[in-house]
Specification:
The complex is a heterodimer of chains A (about 475) and B (about 210).
Chain A lengths: L2 H11 L2 H21 L8 H17 L1 H14 L3 E5 L2 H14 L4 E4 L3 H5 L2 H6 L4 E4 L2 H9 L15 H12 L6 H18 L2 E4 L3 E3 L4 E6 L3 H7 L3 E7 L3 E2 L5 H12 L7 E5 L13 E7 L3 H5 L15 H5 L1 H6 L10 H12 L16 H5 L6 H18 L4 H14 L2 H14 L7 E2 L9 H9 L2 E2 L6 H6 L2
Parallel strand pairs in A: 1-10, 2-3, 2-4, 4-7, 5-8, 7-10
Antiparallel strand pairs in A: 5-6, 6-9, 11-12
Helix pairs in contact in A: 3-12, 16-18
Chain B lengths: L1 H13 L22 H14 L3 E5 L2 H12 L4 E3 L3 H6 L7 E2 L5 H10 L2 E4 L3 E3 L4 E5 L14 E7 L3 E2 L2 H7 L9 E5 L4 E2 L7 E2 L6 E7 L1
Parallel strand pairs in B: 1-12, 2-3, 2-4, 4-7, 5-8, 7-12
Antiparallel strand pairs in B: 5-6, 6-9, 10-11
Classes of the chains: A alpha/beta (about 475), B alpha/beta (about 210).
Amino acid sequence: MSATFDRKIHETVSNPELQLKIYTATGRLIEGRKSSISSDRLPEYEELRNQANSVKKHTIDNLDYYLEQFERNVAAHGGKVIYCKDGEEVADFVLGLAKEREARLIVKSKSMTTEELDFNERLEHHGLESVETDLGEYIIQLAHIRPFHIIAPALQMTRYDVADIFTKHLGVTETVITKQTQIARTILRDKFLAADIGVSGANFLVADSGAIVLVENEGNARLTTSAPKIHIAVAGIEKMIPRAQDLATFLKLLGRSATGQPLTVYTSFLSGPRRGEEIDGPDEFYVVLVDNGRTKLLADREKRESLHCIRCGACLNICPVYRKIGGHSFPWVYSGPIGAIITPQFMGPMHEPSLPFASSLCGACAEVCPVKIDIPKVLLELRADVKKAEKRDGQGKLERLAFRMWAWLMRHPRIYEMAGMMAGSLAPEATNGYIRAAPPLMNHGPIRGWLSQRDLPAPAQKSFRQMWRGR
Amino acid sequence: MSRDNILHKVRTALGRSVDQAPPPAPPARISVPSIGKEAKIESFLIRLQALAGKTHHVHSVGDALEYVRRVVDGRPAVASNAPLLAECGVTSLPSVRSGLTDRDELRALCSTAAVGITSADYCLADTGTLVMIASKDEARLISLLPPVHIAVVNADRMLSGLDELLETLPLPAEQSSSMVLITGPSRTADIEQTLVRGVHGPGEIHVVIIS
């Protein structure tokens, strides 16, 4: 485990106020989801999940076909598709366009893909102003911190934290939430009306329509895509669905899984710049399709389903690990179970080797996933990847030796039984049926570390074999 | 160029070749319930009210006008070019500007107006949703910039839900560059999960249904 991962986990776990905030917020999201999918409100829930799973699988397995279809249809409506291999290429494209159009100010709506690409930082480095307009994203951009949760970026903050940030960066002190929201609305309204370019993400790319779909509650994505003369949507290639009609499946699952809403307040279906006699809307429409490691992931049949994710955040809320360690302990922008399976695949298994092990494999994430990604299975695959990488790097020799000995023991029942009896007689005193520490002589190194987090049940008076023989 | 490179990588990863047709996609799941007209209107009104939307069901254009007049209350308003609004007389109210076709003028007016008045292409009964398709009759910003949005809609635009919308319009992009579904007033819960309405879009929404 890296020192940073360890430190951040301890910081979160030992902060009772933060623990309460995470529990309350995720608890509300869990309840919202649960009541919105109950059998009286959405009897077809399981059917929709199966449909979403098979449509996503089909799309990802034939992604090149749908990418090209999407590209043709965007062009047919007067827009343009740009493929970029990484954040640098995305920034180059936006900077080039901004220079040509003499643009200075960009308004942004929420997008995890742009977080992943360090989009704002790259542009600001070249003198462009890029302003996040989702309230939560605006707050964390002012404070220069990463989103704490995929759909609730400022989940860990109180109104007083927000007041401090506003005082420091905006020069206004306000602790009433409605008023804080009004302050942000007023400042951002001016930005929307002055902006040259609007940059959005995309919840879905619709191949048969050449359209992007955005779901939101605030209206900032609508403003981002309607007010400025140029609209650029930045999305990972895996956001594809084949048909507009598939939205009848995906939209019903996304809002409910995320916040418990049957539909979010705004759902925008956008295809190209304004046309013919339409009165307003952008003159230019670009869709930037980002690889940034996705094609590498695609090549792995066992783990490819990680790309089926629609970023609802349900797996974060339900995860006992996320609920303890929070979003900022995770080593990259994506947190929770989905973060634990995509981070190692984007950044390499040794980026944070203990990440796939930071799970009890309880399976709650797979149970709530609206597209039925088998997250625990992928975690196991990723654990194997880490072990392979360790072996390649000459690490983990002691662990491999221990497991080889264990395997040998398991194949020799007589010796296994004797070893069991020996271990039983050597076992230290149990308190309340559990052994909480190793005997003093053995209480060192890995054994001590292992038992510092776990209790062993006391050995039984009679082993199963003894009982079997004596029946 | 990254395009060819990325497409090549995708094909290699998937073991597919250029121009290889995919197997047939699983059929889209569209399921339209049969619900009576009155039940649909009823459901729409209840759903929207539950989201703090204000609703008004009338049986004449005169009553619709009366309701709009009361909400506008002499404040500056912008109305879309939807024929229904002119038919109701909404566009002739003294503080209402309408007939706008210039983007810059429309934007300037919408950014100072207190009320935006539109019709809607469809309503979705099971979620209390307005479906707005951008056209020469409906601009995007009228339902977005002013803090109050009023929509006046004929009851014959009522659909049961998303499935019927996508059955009616399997390719919305053929109609317009923008189709927006509006379900209640703009809201956020980004600070302490506390609900605040009217963060960027209208915090107040009124829907007048004419049967």
